[in-house]
Amino acid sequence: MDDVLNIYGYKAVICLDPDTKTFRGEFIDLNGGADCYASDAGTLKHEAWASPRIFLQECEKHGVEPKQSFSGTL
To answer: Which of 12, 13, 55, 66 is the most buried (most CB within 10 A)?
Structure first.
């Protein structure tokens, strides 16, 4: 099962790993480093708001473009 959360205008695809019973949020339009993990949906939602905020602060601090750049080809 996959769902999408919109956090700070960035999309996170949420899935459940049935083997570990862990939720994972993967931010698909950020350069990386902002993914989040949790054992329950409430904690995942909290982590989903904290993770990109910290990631974006670090990008700004180091002058790194946070958005994923697309080449236009698949």
So the answer is: 12
Which two tokens mark 36?
């989040």
Rounded Cα distance, 31 and 64, in Å = 9
How high is the pLDDT of residue 1?
Answer: 46
H-helix or E-strand containing 5? strand 2-7
Is the pLDDT assigned to residue 9 strictly greater than 60? Answer: yes
Whole-angstrom CA distances from 50 to 7, 15, 69 are 10, 18, 23
pLDDT tier for residue 67 given thresholds of 50, 70 and 90: confident
pTM, two decimal places: 0.75
Which residue in 5, 11, 17 sits closest to 46, CA to CA? 5
